[in-house]
Amino acid sequence: MLLLILGPPAVGKMTVGRAIADRSDFRLFHNHHSIEMLLDVFDYGTPPFRTLNTEIRSRVIEEAAAAGTDLVFTFVMGMDEQAEADYLARLLAPYADDVAVVELVAGLDTRLVRNRTEHRLAEKKSKRDVEWSDDNVRQLEADYRMTSEPGRDAPGERVLARWPHLVVDNTDLGPDEVAGRVLAWLVTVQ
């Protein structure tokens, strides 16, 4: 199974994914595993960066599916962006219908606090310039809709409709509590 954890930057995707992996047989492949290694060589968003980021993610997911690995993958998606919905569908295709989606939501103020946590900064060196990173979180919030809206017919909602989907507001929940809820929910959808 592939458990996709979606949500805006600094909502807690990696931290919740780690808590799930620590309590189960899932392995964690968070979106910054590929991003951080490439930033040592290429600037973010450049053609070589985009090409290699896509290839790395695709290959890891393909091999994990072929090996029968239960995988947590984290992702930020602009819900109104057709290209991102298409990319996500292609990326998760090796798991076919064995995908479940957990969407984490929290307000901008909460995410700006989380953007500066020691764990996040240790795992994601690209976020260590916290003033830049805070501005980036704010800009992405202004430019993209990164959470789903029930009844909305946008590319993100259409691709997510393929799989079981749980939305968790984790504003006041710790990662272990969210992990427990997610693992209990997964039992009901498998």
Describe the overall structure.
The protein is an alpha/beta fold. The protein has one domain (2-189): Rossmann fold. Helices cover 52% and strands 13% of the residues. The protein has 9 helices and 5 strands, in the order E-H-E-H-H-E-H-E-H-H-H-H-E-H. The protein has helices at residues 13-22, 31-39, 47-66, 82-92, 108-114, 118-123, 130-143, 155-160, 175-189; strands spanning 2-6, 27-29, 71-75, 99-105, 165-169. Strands 2-3-1-4-5 form a 5-stranded parallel sheet, with helices on both faces. It is globular. It starts with a strand and ends with a helix.
Features:
190 residues; 5-stranded parallel beta sheet; alpha/beta; Rossmann fold
What is the 3D shape?
globular
Give the class-level CATH name: Alpha Beta
User: Poorly predicted ranges (pLDDT <50, ≥5 residues)?
Assistant: none
Could you say what the CATH topology is called? Rossmann fold
| Structural class category | alpha/beta
Number of strands: 5
CATH architecture: 3-Layer(aba) Sandwich
Largest sheet: 5 strands, parallel
Report helical residue fraction. Answer: 40-55%
Radius of gyration: 16 Å
CATH superfamily: P-loop containing nucleotide triphosphate hydrolases
**Tally of separate helices:** 9
SSE pattern, N- to C-terminal: EHEHHEHEHHHHEH
Note the beta-strand portion. 5-15%
First and last CA, distance: 9 Å
How many domains make up the coordinates? 1
Average pLDDT: 93
Biggest sheet strand line-up: 2-3-1-4-5
